[in-house]
């Protein structure tokens, strides 16, 4: 089988990531200036292979819970009543945009066969054309136009429920073959068109742990989530949009470069947190990392195991590459970790993800 | 001077539009099933040439009003206090998405040298690849990825203040030469990153006039706006996001095709409404049409005169191709024409517009 | 099953095309200004259904002929010796480019789910930027840069042997599942990288029939090919690159618009000519039409039957949307219908087609 | 003035390149495994600043030489007679493709504000769709389609005469403001549509110097060109397409990575060779490097001085990123360094460059 060179190198990178995962676990004691933390999670019942992942996936599977035709999953928890309550959280009139800039200086680097690239922006008409007296056919009117080219998951984005497959199926049991080169016939991002509104809650794990950022490969456990919500005096409730801050974006800003942000070792959710999220019936989870879950993965024989449990099986809406820095600072100051959250998708028909500019409104 | 064929044909189309504008005015009495309306506006002081446009532009010019370095314009009116009040309008927990689908079935047709095209969506990995047992380098994990190509103004969108120039200048007096092929160095869409939140008000002119849609070329006057707000018992206030419904989207849906929606004859705001908007100090205006203002334009020697007054001179945020149908129906039922409005831009650095999926939340 | 609107309309269009095919055959006696011709082919043994197509496909199948690993097909006939002989045909030093312009004024229109669009060209740096004194970081050097977006088959192009499948297989028996969203793992266009050189022969059927262009739906038969080569006093030989002129491009030029050029009714090769081409062992066939073969297709139950026989089964290199007008005029004048032919693909790794600018050199 | 981050870093990189240029000249004695060579050129009359560049540019300026409306430049030297003679050089029937693969593994890296990227190839229909039984509207026919996105200069390419400007002018004195965001109104690549055919000559400087590749920053002088043509017993004549091999592509292949190939230090033509090329009246020059001329540039106050002399002033057709390895090996074996050369542009209307797959035919 021939591959393009780009594909080969990305295979090797991803391969290295999971090959190193299991071996290095436990013994990872190198410290860096991010103040390395030993995970507080008990090692009992830790999932370390595909067998465990599958058991969890089946246990948390929500297929059919909202009907055989559902294409929404856990965002069904975000009801109108929740929206009304969320609006009442707007007290200061302050808006926090949780999006990184969409431009060529973004986090993408050769990955996935070099296919996830940073946004390309190019002009179709310019002001310099006007200054240079380029011929323009319209009386008096002058203007500029432009276009963009971008993978839907290149910067701050939502995953659609058609983005990840589990044993040939996607959310609610739809066959993955419904995602063809013509797009997703089921679970396309357009299903969320008028859905992404509700109460947002920030769990600032890094602040709670009193570090600038969690170390790469730090596993956030269910105990960590509880500890943080206790310390913030905020309850995570049914239908919430849960934002989890690891500090990884702070690290990027401090060092002035994305480096291995996309796909590299990163702090993130442990597999077992899927159960916690299931129990709390959250509508969505988003983080300040590339892929929400911890990397390297704890499972040698299964890449991105947490994704596989929560996205195709639980039906969880997932957001990635959120910039939570400004919001976190404000929450740290006023000690209010809940807010109205509005983060519309752009309804690209049949897309498996969408750029978004999420708003936390306090 | 050589042109591409595409450019030539678009020149001719636009040319025809304005050539026909003045001549046909007044005499346009053809009736169609949209119930043709004679405009209720007084013909006194009607602006019909560039001279009038220029006078109005200078009178309504807001340059310097928010400082010499401002890149935001009238959205400065949408203060934090307004946001708090807007959130109180959320009573039913109902979300209305005002975006059309982003796909190849959109409204664009050969125009602007054929450069505004409908969104192109293409897959980078598919589920059918998985079903067909394509080689995938990752253990157990399977998924789909995609990319999109789109002019920023191809579907529901906001204009940036770098989109339209007036005598070589853009909003706040910045030189239009700051918009080069590298993008807008000033007034780029990213300035609105955390700004588009506030009170929304729907003026449903078509409903007020008791028609399914206003006839193409119907000029909405300041009197129409007053009449409508009176009839709806809603005051348009400083900092509001004003949504104006002409019914043109209803017409598209009923006939089942976009046809000349983009760039054709359309109902829209008369030039003189710029003064009304200035007086009411709205933050933004958006409509269910391609270009907000009436077409054909009333000025033979100036294309899109209302744009030229309000965008580069007043600094008005402008939204186009909004789908107001569902929202209008709901407002017609509960007689509540105000709501919380949240419509984030995607912050493409240096872009002169942005796709958006605006939410009206009641 | 949901479809995008664009897909639906294209389905209907293609559907109409084949629905009309069989019924109208024989009775098509409408005349237009292209001088309608009754096909000279005998009606004996005419293939009119899938059964006949399959029999022919199996009879002409070349799988294994050049080894089990071949990805080149009939271009194997174009040997080095043929290239030397072809070069001897260069006597006048005249070069004919057979490519149409690559720009937004091209032949594509909404088709294939609107996915085959005309080339999009956009600038990354411009001269007007320079004139307008845009900041440029380099000492003294000034320049322009640009990018293009194009379906590989949007204008003058070669099909790769991975472009058409027959019962789940492509050329030489490779499974069609080897063409994934990562590209063609077998039979990609890059295989032709250094191959497209040899003797070109023009069969100008329209001129031979003494018409400006063959009528849409005119079926070119094997007898027509023989008649034309006799009249031109040129033998079609093993390894030749055969160019067949229907005059359809002349029609486009005369009427000044592409109209239904892409996918509409068109003159073209009858299914049975596959046998003729097989017998003559040509390296490639190209025409001045969108799809080489006659449209509507003669088979109700099989779209593009000739493609299915010659591309995946015979392994024939196929060129489409060639502009043969200038070349034909020259051949008509000097009565020399053979020439050196050089038409490189751009070697996009894994692509199923490639733009080309073919040269006929006399 | 704000810049995008990408732009800033590219500015710095380019800046570093020219800052280092003059200082390091002469003293560069570090040796690497490419066998460092002291340039054989006399240091007399060496051009080291913009003043010298300007004098040379004016002396070699060909404006008006082929009429006031010419958009072709030196390729005018490649006459029909030359083409006939070139064809006679085809003796073995061997074709050498001089193109690198067009894919994501290409030489581009963040440069020019990250705007020159490697080709992006994505599928619109796939074989895996077929295998997975995706709904397809056509009877029996199955196939694949795709699209590409690429900067015209990302891989093997020709520069158009609209690519480089000199004091606000391009080739033949046309104003650079004729290159707007709508494309090049003059000197667009489409002018070469049927032009790029003639006699090719390979000057294999690396082989002549008995090294695998010239060291980065090695300046090829006029004396080197003469020495090489003497050693190869081939005369460079009027109208020739001159291919110059530095071995840089061999270095890339041996080390298995492009690294700083694009924009980094590289062997290449000295400024003064412009005079040699002018005297020999070549039609075009192409090399196996990113930018033909030596880097770092010898002039501190002028980036790419040789470009500025030969492209806008002399009107020289220039090719870059040619893979000359296979051809060079063959020439080394049979000692024949001349051949027929055919390298069509893809005629993108108004483009400032074009991908090409050049053929050397022996």
Basic shape of chain A: globular
How would a textbook summarize the main sheet of chain A?
9 strands, mixed
Count every helix of chain A, treating DSSP H or I runs of 4 or more residues as helices: 10
Radius of gyration of chain A: 21 Å
Residue ranges of chain A: pLDDT <50 for 5 or more in a row?
Answer: 1-43
Secondary structure topology:
The structure is a homotetramer of 362-residue chains.
Chain A: H1 5-24, H2 50-59, H3 80-87, E1 95-97, E2 120-125, H4 127-131, E3 142-143, E4 145-151, E5 157-159, E6 164-165, E7 179-180, E8 183-184, E9 197-204, H5 205-208, E10 219-220, H6 222-232, E11 241-245, H7 248-255, E12 268-269, H8 273-280, E13 284-287, H9 305-314, E14 317-320, H10 325-334, E15 338-342, E16 353-355, E17 359-361
Parallel strand pairs in A: 9-11, 10-12, 11-13, 13-14
Antiparallel strand pairs in A: 1-17, 2-4, 5-14, 5-16, 7-8, 9-15, 15-17
Helix pairs in contact in A: 2-9
